[in-house]
# Entry
Amino acid sequence: MSNPKKYTLITGASSGIGREISIKLSANCNLILHGRNLKRLEETKRMCNGNNHILWSCDLGSDLSISEELTHLITSNRILVSNFIHCAGIVTVMHARSITSITSNKIMNINFTSAMVITSTLLKKTINQQELKNVIFMSSIWSKFGARGYSLYCASKGALDSAMRALAIELAPVVRVNSVLLGAINTPMSEKSFLDAEIMQNINNQYPLGVGKTDDVACMVEFLLSSDSRWMTGQQIILDGGRSINMSSK
# Structure
């Protein structure tokens, strides 16, 4: 393969945070836009700058051939992947007594296991020629704290952050690995909840800087991919408008 094009892979690029990151990075990067819904991925692609972006439709929750599909995508397009940003994720609110192996496997597969499988695939010399330089996991402040009904979600993000720290040691100095721990972000998925006056009142009390925007996350990702963050790896970067340090009773 001669002079293959370098790409950034973004999972969960069909909406919300993943879409915003894609739009932001498209000015300077070739992108692999991942998601389950091909129509929404095409919408994301139209919002991006440039014409070299590639779509990858794959269900990370149930697809057992993630590595094979990604390998085929890379080799058939004769490209290499320099950066991997894992934005794909689901939130399942469920009391502990209702948890089953099916629900547990699904949320762990999407939020955690798929990220590890993709990272492993991108590290294989025969597939990606040791091109990988940055891995960013989109995590949550709930990986550090707890909430009723969120045990599976907290566990999946906690696993992601723990793996991030181990990977940062294992892959240094070639690959930098970091997590971004998010608080409440205004996305199409959360927009309906934010219309509830009681919910918004609670958020206004809890978040000193208010609700975050998807662009706040995209700017952080852009920084982490840049040479300005060259000395950062293995970090849980909290981006939550001050929520996690707010100990006020109201």
Q: What stands out?
A: The mean pLDDT is 93. The radius of gyration is 18 Å. The beta strands are 5-11, 30-35, 54-57, 79-86, 134-140, 176-182, 185-186, 212-213, 236-239.
